[in-house]
Amino acid sequence: MSGGKEIFRARAVVKEYIPGRGFFGRSRRPVRALDGVDLSIDEGEVVALVGESGSGKSTFARIAVGLEPPTSGSIRLGGIDIAPGDKAALRAARRRMQIIFQDPSGSLNPRITAGEALAEVIRVHRRAPRRAAKEAAVDLLERVGLGGDDYRRYPHEFSGGQRQRIAIARSLAASPRFLVADEPLSALDVSIQAQILHLLIRLKKEFALTLLFITHNLAVVENIADRVAVLYRGRIQEEGPAGLLLRTPLHPYTKELVAAAVLFRPGGGRPVADLSSAVLPDPPAAEGCPFEPRCPIARARCVGARIEAIDTGGGRKVACLRATGEDTPA
């Protein structure tokens, strides 16, 4: 649950990419991956950022920990602004934040053992001597469900689930306060996903972490998140307490995600709906609602001016004219 003190804040974050030149050397229009994202997270809170592939989730994850700069907007961690490219501020902030990537194989150095990877981080961030770093590394391996003997094993000697455990341990080696988990379950078998999810829940409590959990799968969100933010085409469409949002979604897009997750809930005889490979339709030509081309209740006003998220009370926000009663059926 939230500790009340804000630890992370994103304000009006925009990220544009410039694609290569088109036919006859013509410049192409910038692709906007994030379009004015506002998100705050309190100390001790778990916020899930959900949406389909291409919605901008992983882009936001990289910007949140300073791996990419935003085109505009600000990112603050513990009151430190890390967005403008101030290297000193970023170094100070990075002592308190870490990221877990989707593919543990790609995030581990194949040339060093699991234990050495952890010990190296501990020596750098905690300034520990070699012996103390090794002891702390062994302790971390045991905390994530591995053994001390695994210290000398290389990444290729582990299974995918074990490699993800090592990646989680390495993120904790720096003693972070804020942890971003970018699709940490999607590269794993379904049976292993549950184990890693329960591990993250336990470690969050043990290490008093604040967590931004990024996923395309709403079915796992209710087990870990205090609050949910729904991202579509780089804009947050709905935000609110996890239980309330999952029980009574307001935005048509959230309703679509919840319906898919409920229909294919684990244990129901069919796999969870996987939106990671869904293909988004072309964006609307106007500045209006990005979901309008596939929305079942869209009206003419939805194609007009930009629709900002409106506070509906109870910690909930929604960017939909119909959901907030600002527009009525024709």
CATH architecture of the largest domain, by name, is 3-Layer(aba) Sandwich
Question: Tell me about the biggest sheet?
Answer: 8 strands, mixed
Shape: globular
Please give the CATH class of the largest domain: Alpha Beta
The name CATH uses for the topology of the largest domain is Rossmann fold
* Side-by-side strand order of the widest sheet: 6-7-8-3-9-10-12-11
Terminal-residue CA separation:
42 Å
Residue-averaged pLDDT: 86
SS-based structural class?
A: alpha/beta
Could you give a quick summary of the protein structure above?
With 330 residues, this protein is of the alpha/beta class.
What descriptive keywords fit this protein?
12 strands, 2 domains, four-stranded antiparallel sheet, 330 residues, Rossmann fold
What can you see in these coordinates?
The chain is of the alpha/beta class. The protein has 2 domains: 1-19 and 30-96 and 176-280, P-loop containing nucleotide triphosphate hydrolases (Rossmann fold); 107-175. It has helices at 57-64, 87-94, 104-107, 114-126, 130-143, 160-173, 190-206, 242-247, 252-263, and strands at 6-17, 31-42, 46-50, 72-77, 80-81, 97-100, 178-182, 210-215, 227-232, 235-241, 310-313, 316-318. The protein has an 8-stranded mixed beta sheet with strand order 6-7-8-3-9-10-12-11, sandwiched between helices. Strands 2-1-4-5 form a 4-stranded antiparallel beta sheet, with helices on one face. Helix 4 packs across helix 5 (130-143) and helix 5 packs across helix 6.
